[in-house]
Structure formats: C-alpha cells, structure tokens
Predict the structure.
Amino acid sequence: MARFQFSHIETYARTASTLSKSSSVKTCYDILAEASRVYEHSRHVMSPSPPELLDGITTQELAENLNLLLENEATEVVLGGKAKKRAVRKDAHVLLAAVYSYPSQSQMCDLDEIRPFFMDCIEFHREKFGSVQSAVLHTDEQYLHIHVYTVSNNARKLHPGHIAKKLNKSEASSIKSSVAYKNAMRAFQDDFHQSVSHKYGLERIGPMRKRIQSELYQIAKQAKASELAEWFENETIKKKKKLQEKTERLKQFYDEKRFEIESEYEQFKETNDVSLQELQEKTQLAETEYEDLMNQRELIFDILIKNQELISENENYKKRLHEYEEDYGPR
C-alpha cells in the first residue's frame, strides 16, 4: 500500500492584526499552547499526552521566552543621527511553524524505527529555514508527527510561498501572486521529498479527489448524509441494546448480592446464642466491676499516701532522737 508524505509550514504573530477580518486568527501563543497540550488548546485530542522534546527548548519555554528572543532580532535604525533599535511589531509574523508527519497509525508504529525520519526532518528544516528553537514529537493523535519552530523578526521572509507572492505582487491582479505562491509551495514539497521522504519510501503526491459536477455532488452529498443517518441510527440501537443488557446484568448482580447478604444475616441470628438481653447484662456487670476496680484503685492511692506520711514522720522521729542523744547522752 502506497504511503504519502505530509509537511506543512505556516507563520504566526504574537497578536492578531487589527486589519484581520477573521475573529479566529491563531497567535504564536495559541500554537505553542496546543503543542504543549494545554487543555484549552488541545480539546481536539481524545487523550492528550505531553510531547517529547527532540531539539531546542520546550514549547512552553519558547512561549515564555519569545519576547526575549525577539529583542535580539530588533533592527537598528538611524533617527536624528543616532542609532536606535526598533522593536519588532506585535502583529508581525515572528514564528515559522512546520509539521512533518509519518503516514502510519501511531499505535502500530515502532517509534525507534521512525525516529531517524523525524531527525532528518529537523535537519531539513534547519537547512531550509535556519535555526531551530524547538522541535517536539506528538504520539497522541492518529499519526505520529513533529512540530518544528523557528523564530525570526519577519518569519514570512523565510516562508517560500510568501517570498514568491511578494516578488510577483501586482496591483492589477492577484492571480499572478497566487500562482507564484502555489508554485513555490510545490517546489518546497518537491525539495522535502527529494531530501527526506524518498529515503523512507514515501510518495510525493497523495491520492487526488475526483471532481464531479455540482448536481452530482449534491446527490452524492445527500446519499452520504442518508448513509450517515442510517449508520447513526443503527449505532444508537446497538448502544441502547448494550445498555439494556448491562442494566439487566447489574440488576441480576444486585439481586444475588442482596439474597446472599440476607441469608448470611439470618444464619448469624440463628447461630448466635447470646441474646441482646444477655449482652446488656454482661455489659452492666462489666461496668460495675470496672467501678469497683476504680474504687479499689483510689483506696490503694490513699494507703500509699498515708504510708509515705508515716515514713516521713518516722524519719523525723529518728532525727530528733539522734539530736537528743548528742545533747543528753553519756559524755
């Protein structure tokens, strides 16, 4: 079965441009948060797991240090005869993000065998776009893939499509620049295939979707919707049946456990020859014996105290006798 390469590059700014007409434009921080598997940005992943760092710093560290990295990218300008550094605009595209995927199911892959492919992808990215600030591997989606990030004060100057589009920009028509963009991206895909993919037996171009007339498309779309509705109904019936079966099993289990507990309780009542009254009498007797012991304990304490007093008194008598003998005894 043929396997096809997949690579994609895009650029992002720290904040969305005020000229943007879309309200869903993603920023650098959105992209890096998704790569870091921050919950709010990775809800499309069924069971998110932390990415594996392959190169550079983590995506979280890159997000935290993005402004600091861009300070080194500030351009020098001369104003009033003095050289000053011009900070990079907040809405300038400063992050080039690339995705390189391996066309095999994540659960069926031996990561150690595929790892060289991803390391070659990182080297290809480095040769193509310069430094690599971060590269991370995701194993929690359908296909294994890596995200590679490069920071620049103008990331679009690194993007081959935007470079070609700018060189062919025309006020009269945007068709020429659009064609130039597509051709440049095709060349990028060719380069990636020649440099990396072909060494791992991956095809350059994937299966093309058949183009059909709009009327046929609508018919096909309705048929697909009908097929999907029928599948959904069947699945609902299956799940409902499974739920009923599970409910019956739980009810049966509950009844069996209830009968078992009631039987054990009845057996305990029959075999236990100590009545409640006998237990109460024994408890009362034990309390009485305890009170007697406490009283005896108090008597013993009193005797010990009196004995100590007698010992002290005896010592005083001995002392006085000794003093008397010294004063009035034979000389």
